[in-house]
Specification:
Layout lengths: L1 H32 L6 E7 L5 E7 L21 H9 L6 H6 L4 E3 L6 H4 L15 E3 L1 H5 L3 H6 L4 H22 L3 H13 L4 H4 L1
Parallel strand pairs: 3-4
Antiparallel strand pairs: 1-2
Length: 201
C-alpha cells in the first residue's frame, strides 16, 4: 500500500494549501456564531490496529451537549451554520490534517468512537487493520445517513441493528477487494455524489 501512503500525504498537503482560505473563513464563521466555543471539534476515534487518535472537524453542534453519538438531521443541538456545513461535508475539511499525519487515509472505513469499535468481534475486527478514511464504500451508501435516521422512530436502535452491521459487511468487502484503482473510483464517486451500489449488493 505504499502508493496509497504516498498519495495520501501528497494530496492532503496540497489540499490543506489549496483549501486554506476556505478553512480560515469557516473557522471565523463558526467562532462568530458561537464566540465562546471552539471552532475545531476534537474527538477520540479508533484507528488502525485499534489505536486511539484525535480526529478534527469543524464544530457543528453546541458544546457539551452530552447527547447520543448518533446524529440525526434537524436536531436542536446542531447549530444553523453546522447544519449547512454538514450538508455540504465542509465540516470534514480539517480531517485533511489527520490524513497528512497518518492517522487517516482518504479512503477507508469511517473511524468509530470507542464504544462502537468495541462491538467488533471475531473476523469483523479485521476492519481495524485498515487505516480509517474520510470516505469509503459504506460512506457512499450512507451519505444521507442523518436524513435516513430522522425518518425512523428509534434512530439509535436502527443504527445499531441495521446500519452498523451493514457498514461492517461493506467494509469487510472493501478489505477483501482493496486496490488503489478501487480507491480512485471511490474518490470519484464521492466527488460526483453517487453510490457504488453494484459493488456490495
Amino acid at each position: 500500500m505504499i502508493v496509497k501512503f504516498i498519495f495520501d500525504r501528497i494530496v492532503s498537503l496540497l489540499g490543506l494549501l489549496f483549501f486554506s482560505p476556505i478553512l480560515l473563513i469557516i473557522a471565523i464563521l463558526v467562532k462568530l456564531e458561537s464566540p465562546k466555543q471552539p471552532a475545531i471539534y476534537r474527538q477520540q476515534r479508533i484507528g488502525r490496529n485499534g489505536k486511539s487518535f484525535t480526529m478534527y472537524k469543524f464544530r457543528t453542534m453546541v458544546a457539551n451537549h452530552g447527547g447520543s453519538p448518533i446524529s440525526v438531521r434537524g436536531e436542536s443541538r446542531i447549530t444553523p451554520l453546522g447544519a449547512k456545513l454538514r450538508r455540504l461535508k465542509l465540516d470534514e475539511l480539517p480531517e485533511l490534517w489527520n490524513v497528512l499525519i497518518g492517522d487517516m487515509s482518504f479512503v477507508g472505513p469511517r473511524p468509530d468512537v470507542p464504544g462502537y469499535a468495541d462491538k467488533l468481534q471475531g473476523d469483523d475486527r479485521k476492519i481495524l487493520s485498515l487505516r480509517p478514511g474520510i470516505t469509503g464504500l459504506a460512506t457512499l451508501k450512507y451519505r444521507n445517513e442523518e436524513e435516513l435516521l430522522a425518518k425512523v422512530e428509534n434512530p439509535v436502535l436502527y443504527n445499531d441493528t441495521v446500519i452498523f452491521p451493514d457498514k461492517i459487511r461493506i467494509n469487510l468487502a472493501y478489505l477483501a477487494h482493496y486496490s488503489f484503482f478501487l480507491d480512485m473510483k471511490i474518490l470519484w464517486y464521492t466527488f460526483i455524489g453517487k453510490d457504488l451500489d453494484n459493488f456490495y449488493k
